Amino acid sequence: MPFVQRPKAADTLIFYYTGHGGRDMSSPARPVSFATYDTRSTWMVNSIVATIEQHFHGRQVLYFADCCHSGALADRVSRGRQRAAALCSAHVTSTSTGNWTFIETLTRVFDGDGFADAHRCLELQRLLDVDRARTGQAGAGDRRDQARTENAV
What we know:
Layout: E1 12-18, E2 20-23, E3 32-35, E4 42-44, H1 45-55, E5 60-66, H2 71-78, E6 84-88, H3 101-110, H4 124-135
Parallel strand pairs: 1-5, 5-6
Antiparallel strand pairs: 2-3, 3-4
Helix pairs in contact: 3-4
């Protein structure tokens, strides 16, 4: 991972994953991995964060994940030692929407599609409300399509 070993002190690393996530139900720890169809490989969530923590020495890390069980990334980041935040499409125990609505909403936010205020700031609750309205999901108590931040950047 040479690209994470050359940051300047003020650099931010953005980790972005969209794809498939799964849990190993045969293990008592129920670890989560991100999987791809085309490479037959998996990335264990714990090893992703551990590798970035070990090699990246910039200012902060922003993690984004749009897949089933992606909340495991937010859980792991919250236990980490880096200045980091994670925004995920599902709780660790839940599947995602399956229609990529989470990343579509993020794309609209980053494109400035009327979500941000005059200072180009966005409250996560507004993002959640918009995404839930698009997917027809329930309010704040719904655990299926939940965005979380930990150790706010």
